[in-house]
Amino acid sequence: MPYTKKHKMNIRHKILQSASQAFRASGIKAVSVPQIMSGAGLTHGGFYAHFDSKEQLVAEACKSAMEDTVARLGSVAEQTADGQKLTAVIESYLSATHRDSAEQGCIMPALAGEIARSSEDIREVFTDEVSRFLSFVSGLAGQDKDKSIALTATMVGSILLARSINDPELSDKILSVCRADLKQRTAGPVS
């Protein structure tokens, strides 16, 4: 008996979740298709029933990972009073929890360096997802796109540096200083 369309969609979702977590944790090149399938609780042989290539999987995993990030940060914003939504997102993004959970975190600091050396198809999807994130940030506090770009680049760079070093105190300091700086830069005018 053939699988239902719903079952096939659920399996595809499991593969995407496994891939996006594995890519964020270890990088694209370091993760094999068999590892991804094993992480989804599946055998390697079923991969090509869902994806044409690892490249297609990478592109779709980028999209899935950014959807997760925007949804998670959107939830943070929804639970916060108006006027504090952007601050809450900054605090959540530049947190020790985000730094220490690359496999669950934003794809930008986890994979941007590797994506820069990927195919045009993957870079196009990644570009679309960065644009999605920029729109999300600009919508939080009515920021214009230029300010959203600067804010996002600072957040991504801060997480990237904080994850890259082996000095826990300096890593914490990077997060706290950048959090404070961004909150000050995005605060409304003082009356």
Automatic annotation (TrEMBL):
Pfam families in alphabetical order: TetR_N
Keyword annotations from UniProtKB, A to Z: DNA-binding, Transcription, Transcription regulation
Entry keyword annotation includes Transcription regulation: yes
Organism this protein belongs to: Paenibacillus ehimensis
Stretches assigned to the HTH tetR-type domain: 9-69
SUPFAM superfamilies, per database record: Homeodomain-like, Tetracyclin repressor-like, C-terminal domain
DNA-binding region, residue intervals: 32-51
InterPro entries membership: DNA-bd_HTH_TetR-type_CS (IPR023772), Homeodomain-like_sf (IPR009057), HTH_TetR (IPR001647), Tet_transcr_reg_TetR-rel_C_sf (IPR036271)
Upper lineage: Bacteria, Bacillati, Bacillota, Bacilli, Bacillales
PROSITE patterns for the chain: HTH_TETR_1, HTH_TETR_2
Superkingdom of the source species: Bacteria
Keyword Nucleus: no
Official protein name in the record: TetR/AcrR family transcriptional regulator
